[in-house]
Amino acid sequence: MDSIWGVTTLEDVSEGVEFVLECAPEKLELKQDLFMELEQWLDRDVIFSSNTSSLSPTRIAEKMEFPERFTASNFWNPAHLLPLVEIMPGENTSPDTVEKVKTLMERIGKKPVVLTRETPGFIGNRLQFALLREAIAIVESGIASREDVDKAVKYGIGRRLGDTGPLETVDLGGVHVFASICEQLFPFLDNRREAPALLTELRDKGHLGYTTGKGLYEWTSEELERIQRYRQETIIEWMKKDRERG
């Protein structure tokens, strides 16, 4: 904690800075103006990065004089527990900037992944929302209940994906096997391009999840505390395993 202190102006951070990570609200103009002002106070060789999870790094850096020193670095929440950081360069980001950010993330104990080009959703959200789209389609079409869909993930693929990613799983199961399954299954998978009605109808009714006591499930304070505690304990156990494995 002795290494952390707060300031109230950007001028106050103009000395001894090597790396800036911005965590301002997801408003493009706000972020653009912030980095434009930071450039006035900080040295030319300072690396700038944004914790954005949705905005284009190219757009964020549009007002910068030196956009080659800017990249997105998306820390996954809860950031103090999950090791993943997705590094996504903009169109003008230099390879040297990307390498420096990757090295820094590794030095502080994170597990960085580097995108070779800019794309909406980075890697994690593209995968996460592909799963969500299919999960909601299964519920909406009456194939299974929402409880059983969640169980299928928690006690099946969720347990396995902690050690083997989806592409490693293909090799372990056999490329020929997965190719055949793709040919048979892909025509039946959901491919909608709009938000599912199951979510938009809940949103319009004000049922927003645990904050309102109801979303896809009913939430009591006791149930919320239980699931948050279990999730945190599980993540901490994974952190211990990561450290043991190196």
Word description of this protein:
The protein has 246 residues and is of the alpha/beta class. The radius of gyration is 21 Å and the shape is globular. It has helices at 28-41, 57-60, 95-107, 124-140, 146-161, 166-173, 175-185, 197-204, 221-245; strands at 19-22, 47-50, 70-75, 84-89, 111-114. The two termini are 25 Å apart. Helices cover 47% and strands 10% of the residues. It has a five-stranded mixed β-sheet with strand order 1-2-3-4-5, with helices on one face. It folds into three domains: 10-114, NAD(P)-binding Rossmann-like Domain (Rossmann fold, 3-Layer(aba) Sandwich); 123-193, Orthogonal Bundle (N-(1-d-carboxylethyl)-l-norvaline Dehydrogenase, domain 2), CATH 1.10.1040.10; 206-246.
